[in-house]
Each structure stands twice: as structure tokens, then as C-alpha cells.
């Protein structure tokens, strides 16, 4: 990763997230919010990687934040949370790792391909698990509030 200031990481990931939100046909009223979600998620990821050096844990925590903010924005803006989650996690996706895995495979460097591929799978799993934890918790709390209201 480059040694840019954190605010530049936020700005660039904000722009990338808005671009993907446009590409995915998100409503125009949600573009800035989606950009904020992606910018905050990437900034937290970058900070945690610099702090701990653990990509998997940093991706998990950043995905937790992205999912949590997306759930809040979904309620505030009366939109599905997925409109914010999908563009918000785009900066976290390990595209370079996937590319390097394929490059190693094409070059018949199977040891590096397996090592990089496993790392990419763990990062992808961490992102998925971060989203799953928050989404499941929100749905469970919603179900509990419905049951409580029915009594």
C-alpha cells in the first residue's frame, strides 16, 4: 500500500465507491451516502492494516463498519441496505490478490498461487462474515421487536 495521507485514501475510495454505485444503477439520492460508506470502510481498513498488519482482521472489522453504517442509512433514507453495502465493500475486495493468484497460475508458480489464493479466500470470507454478522444481528433484533410489539 502507498504512503498517502489517510484523507487521500478516503477521497479516492469515496470516488471509487460512487463510481461503482453509478455503475450498479443506485438511486441518485444515495450516491453521496454510498461514497461515505465506502470511504469510511476503506479508511478504517487502511488504518487497521497499518496498525496491526493483519489484512484479514482489518477487512472483517471494516466490513462490520460498512454493514453497520449501511443498515443505519437504509433506515434513514428508506432504501434497502444492499444499495449501500455492495458499493461500500468494493474498495475492500482484494482485486490485486486475485490477479496475482491467476498470474502465478499462468506462470506455473503453484506454491505462490496457492499461498496468494488462500489469502484472497480468507479476506473474502472475512468481508462476507463481517456483513453477515451485522445483517443477522439487525434482522434478529427486528424480529424480537416485532414479537415484543405483538404481546
Protein model, in words:
The protein is built from 6 helices and no strands. The chain has 151 residues and is mainly α. The protein has one domain. Helix 2 (31-52) runs antiparallel to helix 3 and helix 2 crosses helix 4 (82-89). The radius of gyration is 17 Å and the shape is globular. The termini are far apart. The relative contact order is 0.13.
Helix-strand layout with pairing:
Elements: H1 6-23, H2 31-52, H3 55-77, H4 82-89, H5 95-106, H6 110-150
Helix pairs in contact: 1-2, 1-4, 2-3, 2-4, 3-4, 3-6, 5-6
Task: Label this structure with key terms.
151 residues; mainly alpha; 82% helix; globular; membrane; transmembrane helix
Poorly predicted runs of 5 or more residues: none
How would the global form be characterised? globular
Count of discrete domains: 1
Total of DSSP H or I helical runs spanning 4+ residues: 6
- Roughly how much helix do the residues carry, as a percent range? over 70%
Mean of all residue-level pLDDT scores: 94
What does the largest sheet look like?
none
Radius of gyration: 17 Å
What's the total count of β strands? 0
Structure classification: mainly alpha
InterPro entries: ThrE_2, ThrE_Dicarb/AminoAcid_Exp
Transmembrane segments: 6-24, 55-74, 81-100, 120-138
Family: Belongs to the ThrE exporter (TC 2.A.79) family.
Protein name: Threonine/Serine exporter ThrE domain-containing protein
Amino acid at each position: 500500500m502507498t504512503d498517502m495521507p489517510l484523507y487521500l485514501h478516503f477521497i479516492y475510495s469515496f470516488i471509487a465507491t460512487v463510481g461503482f454505485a453509478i455503475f450498479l444503477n443506485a438511486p441518485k439520492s444515495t450516491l453521496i451516502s454510498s461514497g461515505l460508506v465506502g470511504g469510511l470502510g476503506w479508511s478504517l481498513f487502511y488504518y487497521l492494516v497499518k496498525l496491526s498488519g493483519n489484512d484479514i482482521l482489518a477487512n472483517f472489522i471494516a466490513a462490520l463498519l460498512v454493514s453497520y453504517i449501511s443498515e443505519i442509512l437504509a433506515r434513514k433514507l428508506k432504501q434497502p441496505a444492499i444499495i449501500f453495502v455492495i458499493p461500500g465493500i468494493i474498495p475492500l475486495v482484494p482485486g490485486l490478490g486475485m490477479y496475482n493468484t491467476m498470474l502465478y497460475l499462468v506462470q506455473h508458480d503453484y506454491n505462490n498461487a496457492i499461498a496468494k489464493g488462500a489469502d484472497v479466500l480468507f479476506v473474502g470470507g472475512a468481508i462476507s462474515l463481517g456483513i453477515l454478522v451485522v445483517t443477522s444481528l439487525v434482522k434478529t433484533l427486528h424480529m424480537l421487536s416485532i414479537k415484543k410489539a405483538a404481546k
